[in-house]
Amino acid sequence: MTDISIAIVAYNNEADVRNAVSSMEECTARSLSKIIYIVDNSTKENMLSSLEEEYQDVIYLKPGKNLGFGGGHNYVLEKLDSRFHAIVNPDILLKEDSFSVLLDFMEQTEAGMAVPRLLDESGELQKVYRRELTVLDMGIRMFLSGHFLKRQNYHTMQDMDYHLPFPVPFAQGSFLVIRTELFRELGGFDQRYFMYMEDADLCRQVNSISSLWYCPKTAVIHKWERGSHKDSRLFRIHMTSMLQYFRKWGWKLW
């Protein structure tokens, strides 16, 4: 059994995946045993399979079709033999040994899942920690992002002290570490979401039987391209996933 398994779902972003893996290999302590799974949902040809040759702890998997975000991460679920499991986006870069810090933090707090400080490329903390999702907050986020700033600040927990750990209702799924046993107990991600909102759903499930905590002791870089804000097809998928989320968990208005 390894200390941690790590899954990255690739989709036509070979350079990002390579950079993410390279940063993990460079920054993670050798004393921490790990396996990095690359689940390749890509529709274009690439050379990601060569990462298996470059790094002994990388396993490349090609499902043969685009399984979506949650489906891609669930593709490794039955293969996991680790104490902890990391859900990592391709646009993540490690600058320090974040996995060791997060595992120590989770063992000390008994958190079921943890999220570090997520920083943009200029070093600013991103607003990826949120209170429970409501129809109002998602409506503002999707259609009125330049308005109702006080409400947006409340929803993104701007009133919290980010120098201290605190429980989080919903943290964006760009970099999450979960106890493997818990991830397996939950059955991974709900695959009714093809993309978007599956991270909110997972956080909700974790908090229903355990806890998700923000860990201020380590930080990772997240490029965060926000694809659904630029692409009409992705926007429609996002809206469909939102409807699925509220049908499942209830239409909390505000």
CA distance, first residue to last residue: 44 Å
How would you describe the oligomerization state of the chains in this entry?
A: single chain
Report low-confidence residues grouped into runs of 5 or more.
none
CATH class descriptor: Alpha Beta
Q: Measured on Cα atoms, how large is the radius of gyration? A: 17 Å
pLDDT averaged residue by residue:
95
Based on the coordinates given, report the CATH architecture: Alpha-Beta Complex
- How would you spell out the order of helices and strands? EHEHEHEEHEEHHEEEHHEH
CATH topology: Spore Coat Polysaccharide Biosynthesis Protein SpsA, Chain A
- Determine the fraction of residues in helical runs and give it as a percent range: 25-40%
Portion in beta strands: 15-25%
Structural class: alpha/beta
Helical run tally: 9
| Domain module tally | 1
For this structure, what is the CATH homologous superfamily? Answer: Spore Coat Polysaccharide Biosynthesis Protein SpsA, Chain A
Number of strands: 11
Largest sheet at a glance? 9 strands, mixed
Question: What's the overall geometry?
Answer: globular
Keywords:
globular, Spore Coat Polysaccharide Biosynthesis Protein SpsA, Chain A, alpha/beta, single chain, 35% helix, 254 residues
In short:
With 254 residues, the protein is of the alpha/beta class.
What does this structure look like?
This protein has 254 residues and is of the alpha/beta class. It has a single domain, classed as Alpha-Beta Complex (Spore Coat Polysaccharide Biosynthesis Protein SpsA, Chain A), CATH 3.90.550.10. Helices cover 35% and strands 23% of the residues. The chain is built from 9 helices and 11 strands. The strands form 2 sheets. Strands 1, 2, 3, 4, 5, 6, 8, 10 and 11 form a 9-stranded mixed beta sheet that branches. A two-stranded antiparallel sheet has the order 7-9. The chain is globular and about 50 Å long.
